[in-house]
Amino acid sequence: MALDHLFQGSALNAVDGKGRVSIPAFLRSVIERRGDAKSIVLAKHEAFPCLSAYDPAYAALKHSKLERPFEKEEANPEAALDYQQRNLMAFAATEEVAYDSSGRIVLPPMMR
């Protein structure tokens, strides 16, 4: 799966009292060019005390990247454990969240 459109730029947005935050228009346009979903996947950042977000197409790409090395070593018990740990770190603490017509999402309670 090729991702023809790249995310570029940055933004700092406040979270309101109800846990809502807006996804900037320049990021939404990339998400919408990549697919039909009007949603983002939220995840705990691997290294920093913050959340990261990406579109569902990137989540699928990330999953396939984890699958490839494991397929070569399926019979190896250590490879299976490593695969399970990587999958857990990559996907267990993620949640796909739809955004409304104005680009707002509601942060899931565990991610606030």
Topology:
Layout: E1 20-22, H1 25-34, E2 39-44, E3 51-54, H2 56-72, H3 77-92, E4 94-98, E5 104-106
Task: Indicate the percent of residues in helices.
Answer: 25-40%
How are the strands ordered across the major sheet? 3-2-4
What count of helical segments does DSSP give? 3
The Cα radius of gyration reads 16 Å
Instruction: Give the termini distance in whole angstroms.
Output: 32 Å
Beta strand %: 15-25%
Annotation, overall tally of beta strands: 5
What's the story with the biggest beta sheet? Answer: 3 strands, antiparallel
Shape descriptor: globular
Describe this structure in words.
It is a single chain. The chain is globular. Helix content is 38%, strand content 19%. It has 112 residues and is α+β, with helices and mostly antiparallel strands. A three-stranded antiparallel sheet has the order 3-2-4. Strands 1-5 form a two-stranded antiparallel sheet. The mean pLDDT is 80.
Question: How would you summarize this macromolecular structure in one to three sentences?
Answer:
It contains 3 helices and 5 strands; from the N terminus they run βαββααββ.
Tags for this model:
three-stranded antiparallel beta sheet; 112 residues; 19% strand; 3 helices; single chain; 5 strands; globular; two-stranded antiparallel sheet; alpha+beta
